[in-house]
Amino acid sequence: MLPLKIENLAVTFPGLVAPVLSIGTLEISAGSHVALTGGSGSGKSTLINIIAGLERIRAGKVLWGSQNLADLSEGRRDRWRAENIGLVMQDFHLFPGLSALENILLPARLSRVANAELVKRAHALFETVGLKRPEQHIETMSRGEMQRVAIARALLRKPGVIIADEPTASLDLESGEAVGDLLLSVAADAGSTLIIASHDQRLVERLGRRLSLKSGRIIGDVPTGEIAA
Amino acid sequence: MIRFILADLRRLWLGGAVVILLVALATALGVAVTLQERSLRLGSARAADKFDLVVGAPGSETQLILSSIFLQAAPLPLVEGSVLTKLAADPRVSWAAPVGFGDSFAGYPIIGTTTSLISGTTTGFSEGKMFALEGEAVLGAAVDLSIGAEIKPMHGTAETGGHTHAGPAYKVVGKLQPTGTPWDRAILVPIQAVWHVHGLGADHGHHEEHEGEHHDADGHDHSAEGEAHHDDADVHAEGASGHPDTAAHAQEAQQQGQKYAFALGAASSKHVEEDHHGSIDADTPIVETFGASTPGLPAILVKPKTIADAYRLRQEYRSGSTLGVFPGEVLTGLYATLGDAKMVLSAVAAGSQGLVAAALVLVTVIHVGQRRRQIGALRAFGAPRSSVFLIVWLELFLLVALGVGIGFLVGLGAAHVGAQMFTAKSGVILPVGFTREDGRLALILLGFAGVLAAVPALLAYRQSPAQALRA
Questions:
Q1: Is the residue at B232 inside a domain?
Q2: Where do the record's region annotations for Disordered lie (chain B) (predicted)?
Q3: What is the least distance, in Å, from the CA of B395 to any CA of chain A?
Q4: Which of B223, B277, B395, B427 has an alpha carbon within 20 to 30 A of A152's alpha carbon?
Q5: What total of structural domains would you count in chain B?
Q6: Shared domain check, B320 and B455
């Protein structure tokens, strides 16, 4: 539900002359579904990190709604991200030793915001993503199931933005497709802005807009048309 | 959060167990040293505090105390019997009792003394009664013999090549309540009996089969020195009769013996008669008034009536032919030595603790390095930095605290075992226990652990989540 506006963003790493990412202006409207594509080294992951608030912004503005991430301290950025962004990663980053449900609730618990309502929501989300045994330990699940748990975790605090970094890359075709379906449907249900970085052509085609990156610059920005903003 | 930490620790249980083990061992070492030293100090002080003043012949104060209070048998120079007579008659003295030693039975020292010492230093009998006849004996609480047992004194101890006195035997008539002192391991007999067993002039030899051997075993270094400071009269007496060819030396020894030897005091004519047999007259009632004919004594334990009297008596008996000593002052000197030894041990313990601390830092730094991704992920998904800090800190702190706790218990256990072994050997009960000082040590250790655990926690805190995830 949050629109993104990027102005004059430049990300440089020490030791590299050329910026790894340089974006003059970019706008993504609230509730739209956008695919990010590009080879490795294209700056795709850097862009994901920047818009998710995982990386400090040294030059330029990244506005989510009216909030400029560049103005936030690291701690505030962490808090802002926890409240507004649902992250889904290629490697799931689930924590072994805990049950699926505990994994969904862990970030909220660590932020001391988990209340009875949120626990109820966790149970509901668990069903939404199509899983059955909330007490199952995470290490006994299949990769497809794990990614579903990760998606439920991302959705727990009703984020305005869902950012997924290669969510299907480590899954087999079938699970990947199911996960793609799931991401699209939950984002549509909640009206969240959805940004997915992916190589998965089938997934990319199902999003409303495709941004192509190369050497840190946007070289293509085309509507793909299936689901409009 | 606690569940997350527990899940994490379960996953890393092996490493965690090693950390706990390391910390526990290092802590236990330090704790055991501290406890053992303290209990040794307390135990020996308690063992000595029943004895206010010890009077002996001039010589080593430490040896006098070790022999008379801790019953570590060693030949002592003798103080004249008349000193006892004088002390017993002194109005400032509530009781004064001779201590005669040198014999043993089954590894227990046989101590000749008086009924007043026994009633003055013990809380009473657990069984039986006080000796009343010369052939009766009373057991310390830790002596593993029963009433009615027969005791054949052995001269010296079996380990030092002693021999059994041919004739005499005591009959056990009573067993004392425990006192927590080395006297618990002693067999107490009337001093008169000890005199009778040994009570001969230099010209009377013991008629014992192994006297030559005994001389060889015990007396050779004195022969080399040509002096018999710390030997006892028997040896020389035996030497004289057993080796006529060394008569000249024996003659000299006899003269020394007259002055130093254990049982060489003038004896009554009756004694002399019996001395030929080296035996006791088992049925003679004991006499505890010591006249001018009292033989020389290794030590006299004195109970003064007041503290002021104690100081005055010590002063009076510190000149010329006697040496008055407060056990406390000798122990203080010994504690200083003990303290030095403790310092060395403590330094070793501290060194090992330092090593463990360094190892822990290394382990945790590596550990945090390996967990960068996990920590980064926690933050990426919205865990606040304070939570991440707390998780890493708590995990390590829990391990170390557990190690410290176990270490304290192991140290306590080790000190107990050590104390029991010591008690079995010496009879001194060592009170092992924690004091406020140990509480402080525990707090210091835990505080240190807290700071140590903060190092990796800070490392975890510092990295940006994106960096951590890339790792």
A1: no
A2: 202-257
A3: 15
A4: B395
A5: 2
A6: no
